[in-house]
Amino acid sequence: MSIGHTLLGLLESGPRHGYDLKRAFDEKFGHDRPLHYGQVYSTMSRLLKNGLVEVDGVEAGGGPERKRYAITEAGVTDVETWIRQPEKPEPYLQSTLYTKVVLALLTGRDAGDVLDTQRAEHLRLMRVLTDRKRHGDLSDQLICDHALFHLEADLRWLELTAARLVQLASEVRK
Amino acid sequence: MTPAGSLLVAQDLHKSYGPTPALDGAGFSIHPGEVVAVMGPSGSGKSTLLHCLAGIVTPDSGTIRYDGRELSAMSDAERSALRRTEFGFVFQFGQLVPELTCVENVALPLRLTGVKRKEAERRSLEWMERLEVADLGHKRPGEVSGGQGQRVAVARSLVTQPRVIFADEPTGALDSLNGERVMQLLTEAARSTNAAVVLVTHEARVAAYSDREIVVRDGKSRDMMLEHSV
Amino acid sequence: MSLLRDLALGARFALAGGREGWTRTLLTAVGVGLGVALLLGTTALPGALNARNARDNARNDYGASVDGGPAVDTLLIGRADTQFQGSDVRGRLLQPEGAKAPLPPGVSALPAPGTMVASPALRDLLASPEGKLLRDRLPYRITSTIAGRGLMGPHELAYYAGSDALKHRKDVTNDRAEVLRVNKFVNPSPGEKIDPVLALLIVIIFVVLLMPVGVFIAAAVRFGGDRRDRRLAALRLAGADRRMTRWMAAGEALAGAVVGVVVGALFFVIGRQYVGDITIAGLNVFPADLDPNPLLAVGVALAVPASAVAVTLFAMRSVVVEPLGVVRTSVPRRRRMWWRVLPPLAGLGLLVPLMGRGRDRGTFNQVQVIGGTVLLLIGVTALLPWLVEAVVRRLGGGPVGWQLAVRRLQLTSGSAARMVNGIAVAVAGAIALQMLFGAVEGDYVKASGEDTSRAQLMVPLGDSSPDRQAQEVSALKDVAGVTTVAALGSLDAGEKAKEPQHYLPVTVGTCTDLGQAATLPSCKDGDVFIATGGAWNPELATPPGSTLYLDPVNGGSVTQGAAVRWTVPANTREAVSRPDPMGQRRPGLMVTPGALPRGAKLPIHSTVFVSTAPGDTTAKERVLNLAARADPLTSARSLNDVQTSNRFAGVRKGLYIGAAAVLMLIGASLLVSMLEQLRERKKLLSALVAFGTRRTTLSWSVLCQTAVPVALGLALASLVGLGLGSVLLRMVGRSVTVDWVPAVSMVGIGAGVVLLVTALSLPPLWRLMRPEGLRTE
């Protein structure tokens, strides 16, 4: 996830202080990992340097970092481009799991076991997400669904691999 | 092997259709109020396991105990009576009687146990309300959408307040949104009545509504939760 | 042109639609084929019956006897008809009187005494273990068989046996046994002109039998219609318009019907081979005689496919095939009543003017009769769907099985009504016919007056001496299975020895035997009674002490004039006569043997009434064997309660054969639709079983689903049938009396077919209710 683009996007609705930005980010996207303030600071100075944001004003007496940021024309264009561009499909854990499965087959261990354990682990996480979805609002649901669909995709790959273990074994052992 | 307090326990089930074994030493257990997913690739025997557990099919060997009673020792009539009163069923397709209105479909299990028509339909409407389909009462299954139809079917499975609900791919014919909603309503309703749910599915997102899963492969079952606790 | 293209396309679907398409076409073809076979059979039946009659005339010897004495071309014929195990055996004894004696048809040479020419069926029967008793009765050696042209049907039991005793019987004894002298076999009397009432009956029978066949064919054309509609929907998606789908459906039906005509012709040809083996109510025809009238056959071959197209187009009117499926609107268009009442009203309009026409033996306009009857019966098929819909809509409540059935009927009342239309028409027609039969029965069926509860056989002993008769009676008594015998002798008493002016019948028998003919106050041997009662007035006063001359003259023997003088004893008492087991009253003197003049060797004409043990089916045969041994020309026979006019029996047989065939046909179609419906809901049935539905619940629903429309159909059929029957009765000039027994029994038969269909569809239902149906993998 690009933190820079996310912060820019938050600024589009109006100028904010750095602290406000962090709070909004955490509230909406930072369920798992809240942002460090330093991260916000370094990101904002990079954006400032690139001319994507500008300082709208500084509040008096509130401390050294009470700067108010606003998005520039260039910044809006940048967000627009980022949103429109499709994300590059990423290999999540196939590489790791594949290595494990192949190693299991090679050493005569039960590869199905590796997959079953992985499925149980996936399902455990999926239950947590499903439960959160049940009690959350719409944005929670959408975010959890996204994670769930990705996990499900992993699981589908996993089931398919399980169905082809015999075939895979004969090829690996060649 | 048998956890204490189980409502429905099966051990070492064997069942063959012709020469091919559908179940080959499968086991199962479920507590009241628990939702257990039965997973596995198609043809692995998960539907057969459900049919055996529900007393629809008699296994060739093995034991199935429901609430302290041995299912294989019961007559066909006794098992039918058990299914009418203690169990509820949701299937993937073709389970609503096309000629009956939705509320009549929901009322059917109650009517089979001898509840008077008016009373049965009143109770059915309550359940249909909980499943958000009360306004479909007087339509026929052919006139409602797949998701609505499936909710009607879930209402029907709950109307007798069964202690075990058997659901065989209940969302198989639905899109994700409808499928999720049906699962949510089903599991909520089951939890509120402390009913156990045996959920056969091959979809992980549906299985995620369960408390634990059992994997069936080549007629054998694995209880992942038990293995982890060991 | 585009119509033809659509028709052809539809036909291609029917013939090349994969396994499912084929199954449907085959089902239709078999259904239509059964109907066509029956139609062909019906067109061939009159010809077959004519041929049969012609053969019967060709061998007829009644009324063929010639006056005058023996000649070189005369043949003596003795009638030796008998019965064996309920079947008639036509028997003739033949004795030629010259070299040119005629040959009966089908016989190549006259049999020598002691030998016979037998029909193939009789030969086989005699050769079989079942025929053992009959062998004793016909002790002739079989030299050859009677050819087909000398027989009524392939299963007729008949023989011609050679004899050398006929000449003596004819010229010397001249006893009661009929011996004829003929010089040719031909029926000299012109054929009876057919009675207009009987003609009406026959016309109605044909209409009543053919209507349900038409209805059945119409139903068969629609077999598997739901599945076809789904296929047509797919075609709509591919761009066909509504009119095109309609004609394609018609094309499919056309293909099924054309195949059906071929199948029907095949069924007919195959069935004809076996028709000789079937004997229904004694009627049995040769396969070769069952030859359809070519014009009618062509008509059938053209009319059936044409009506298949018409029926389909008509039916498709009410089905809206949309691209995404067949629209079954939640509230189907209600059927209107007004136009459905028109056909029966028009039918009545045609029939009512004919009322009273039959009283003075006037004839009926056949077109008008057929038109009126057909319209009335069509009225049943038009009104029934409306009635079913109207009633079913109001049904509710009740147990689950009932609810399932009612809801199903509410959705598909049309097809339900179609299924029972055939039965309804058949029952309506049959009820009308039964009423007509019942009313005119008195004209054609007579109660014979014979009382089979008192005796089962009568054996005439001829005119022989009391000693000889006593021997014969005791021989009869000794036959295994005989319980009682009662011999009653007949004499006449005149006021003088020769050429008396007045006669008094005299019945001779023991006290017990006389009890069969009169109620006696008390009796011992030597008593004499004068029996009164009945319509008869004695011609002679018989005060005790008066003198009479006993003479068996009326017995037909040659001992005329050998009268014996006899005085009416003083102790003669009065008794009340009662009908003897043959239904005849024997008023006059009742005399016990002890009261007859001592030593008088009067030949008395006696009849023995024989009772056999109930359940002993062969006792009768042994009695007849004994009688035949004493006299091959004996007229000993079983007693019957009723006697039927031959022609009437033929008409009724035709009705029974046809009604049986039609009901079987309709039963088969009901079964097919029921099975089809069950197969389509395999999955649903399994789901219902899963949540604990009892077999009985679903069985009830299947039963109710058939029974409700059938009950309505039968109710309407009874109404129309009784109406039609009343009109027909008025037409032949009878007062209208409703005989409930045939009406109820016809309704019962219709209901029986439903029960049978339900019973036959239960095993498949239960098989489909097995949990295996839930498996999708």
From TrEMBL, chain B:
Residues 8-228 form the ABC transporter domain. Signal peptide: none annotated. One of its GO terms (molecular function) is ATP binding. Keywords: ATP-binding, Nucleotide-binding, Transport. PROSITE patterns: ABC_TRANSPORTER_2 (PS50893). The keyword Nucleotide-binding applies. SMART domains: AAA (SM00382). It comes from the Bacteria. The keyword Transport applies. This is ABC transporter ATP-binding protein.
